[in-house]
Design brief:
Elements lengths: L2 H29 L8 H10 L1 H30 L4 H38 L1 H19 L5 H17 L4 H16 L8 H22 L11 H10 L1
Length: 236
């Protein structure tokens, strides 16, 4: 695959990731009213009544999301590797691990839906316990208790872009901020920041997507602070 095509594919992937976040928020808040559901029995009722929607949502937000996240990481690595190879390697490695964890999260959750519902119809108490176990594993893989993997990935891509001038400066600083929020969300008592991380990352994904789709030459993104220095050297 040519580099230009990979960059554009990465840009389209970034747009999908942003759209997936928005779609997931709409489903969980408006269609399932999941924010107001806290009891295991309530979660089980939602699962029983909306099996197909939950399976589809898990596919969109975790399984397919993880695939496109992998493509985005490959595109960003190609863009960053010449100027900041070490930072690009760290960010990409964490991004690939994150993508794998999200895919596993969605697959584990979907694998447990039908057995949980069947068990619930036979023995409601056991069905609730079974689904609680499945949900705990899926949430752990999906970062519900802290977005460490996604935070590290976003933070290091932000630092790499800032040092190498491979993305607009504002987007690099914003990525560092979003990544820091994700890492901080792993601290006990601060897991509510996971939602802030997800919503903030939507803007980061869109910004990344625009840069990759337009395939802006890297040298045009270098800091303007270097221009006077370059001019002085030329004049001398």
């Amino acid at each position: 695959m040519k580099l230009k095509n990979l960059q554009q594919l990465g840009g389209l992937s970034a747009f999908y990731l942003a759209l997936s976040y928005l779609l997931g928020i709409a489903i969980f808040i408006f269609a399932l009213d999941y924010l107001n559901i806290v009891e295991p029995s309530q979660k089980m009722d939602v699962l029983v009544n909306h099996q197909s929607l939950i399976i589809l949502t898990n596919l969109i937000m975790y399984v397919v999301f993880g695939f496109f996240l992998l493509l985005l990481n490959l595109a960003l690595y190609e863009r960053f590797k010449e100027r900041t190879p070490l930072l690009a390697q760290i960010a990409t490695a964490m991004g690939i691990i994150w993508a794998g964890a999200l895919i596993l999260s969605g697959m584990v959750a979907n694998a447990g839906v039908v057995p949980a519902v069947a068990l619930f119809h036979e023995n409601p108490a056991q069905g609730i316990v079974y689904w609680s176990g499945i949900e705990s594993v899926a949430n752990g893989l999906g970062g519900a208790d802290g977005e460490y993997l996604g935070g590290i990935m976003t933070l290091f891509f932000g630092i790499a872009g800032l040092k190498g001038g491979t993305l607009p400066k504002w987007l690099n600083y914003y990525g560092i901020l979003v990544g820091a929020i994700g890492i901080i969300s792993t601290i006990p008592g601060l897991k509510d920041l996971v939602s802030l991380f997800g919503m903030s990352q939507i803007i980061w994904f869109i910004g990344i997507g625009v840069c990759l789709i337009r395939n802006i030459p890297q040298h045009t993104l270098m800091s303007m602070d270097n221009l006077p220095y370059t001019s002085k050297r030329t004049d001398s």
